[in-house]
Amino acid sequence: MRDIHTQEIKEEPQVGAARRGVRRLAAALGFSEDRLAELDIVVQEIGTNAVRYATGGGCLHWSETLGEEPGLELFYFDKGPGVYDLERALRDGVSSGGSLGTGFGAMRRLLDEFDAYSTVKGTTRRLTTARRTTYGTALLGRKWVEPAATEEQRARARRLTRRIGVWSRPRPGEETNGDAYFIKEHDGETLLAVVDGLGHGRGACEAARAALDTLEQWEGESLDELILSTHDALRSTRGAVMGAVVLDHARRTFTYAGVGNVEVRVLGASDPARPIPTNGTLGARLSQVRVWPHRWQEGTTLVIASDGISATWDAAAYPGLAAKSPQLLAGVLLRDFCRNSDDATVLVYR
Fold first, then answer.
1. What is the mean predicted confidence (pLDDT) over 85-103?
2. By C-alpha distance, which of 263, 217, 206, 214 is closest to 240?
3. pLDDT value, residue 285
4. Using an 8 Å Cβ cutoff, are 77 and 117 in contact?
5. Helix (H, G, I), strand (E, B) or coil at 234
6. Eight-class DSSP state of 133
7. Three-class SS state of 289
């Protein structure tokens, strides 16, 4: 798992704090002075617009990129008024005149990858049952330590980031995260898992870490074997719940097994898939494990989320978002449906 750094941006001094934080991580990753200066400009543009236009401010996250190529990832979101004409705002020199949008073109030029999603207040579906809104702006950017010199290098850098999106954060006020996620490829298969240690804080984190240690040993074993091994490994901890999926790329199938309240949804599939977890707690109480087989189609999107994400989200409330980067989708769901009373994790695979 990677460390994710966060800075709320409501006032000008917080822009500087975000800029310095991003620079520290980027310098540690090996960015040159020229590329550090470009990152400074990007963060300044994001922060300045957040202070000026985003009602209630915004939030910037930064972390090391997933995958083989070293780089830095930025994710910004707000619940502001949104950008009415996002495509126009993405052109250099265009200001949205009252909403976050100035400098989008410059950000896109200075980053190696850039994606944005915005919906305007009053034009999107409101989920009244959850009393949540689906408008605001989200920006995703990546910059590699070294610019890709060849198409092969660019493809290698983007291979994982174009398929995987993941965000995980501890309960507000906690330093340790009781949630965890896991991704591993082996012999043409991919294992994806979200683990939620019971409760939150240090004890939950210890349980989640013990589960990750077991998952790391996976070498293609079946999911029921993996679940039982994890159950045994967690007996000395407070316990955890988990949802796990193994995708077989050659056969275009996937299997799911889960214990406890970790939700799995499949978007964009022609055949409905509603895998149901087994009741129980890993390390404490576990009945027979049920493994659910499904067909995997190209273009299908898999979402795995801990119960720190409200299950009331509806993909139909976000027109066009399913076609965006998996990381952008994961970030928007975290923005709109995370519970402040718990750790929260969203893992997206496409």
1. 57
2. 206
3. 93
4. no
5. coil
6. -
7. coil
pLDDT tier, 84 (very low <50, low <70, confident <90, very high otherwise): low
Weakest mean pLDDT among 27-31, 271-275, 331-335: 271-275
pTM, to two decimals? 0.87
Judge whether residue 70 has pLDDT over 80.
Answer: yes
Q: How many CB atoms lie within 10 A of CB 16?
A: 14
pLDDT of residue 254: 93
Taking Cα atoms as reference points, which of 203, 238, 193 lies closest to residue 345? 193
Tokens representing residue 300 in the block: 């299908």
Measured between alpha carbons, how far is 62 from 54 in angstroms, rounded to an integer?
19
CB 318 within 8 A of CB 154: no
317: region left, alpha or beta (phi > 0 left; psi from -120 to 50 alpha): alpha
Give the closest residue to 162 by CA, choosing from 325, 337, 32, 331. Answer: 325
pLDDT at site 92? 54
Tokens of 256: 């799911």
- Report how far residue 115's alpha carbon sits from residue 97's, in angstroms, rounded to the nearest whole number: 21
Instruction: Identify the structural domains of the chain with CATH numbers, from first to last.
Output: 4-162 (3.30.565.10), 165-349 (3.60.40.10)
pLDDT score of 129? 42
**Residue 241 dihedral angles phi and psi, to the nearest 5°:** -115, 160
Burial class, 15, CB count within 10 angstroms (exposed 0-12 / middle 13-18 / buried 19+): buried
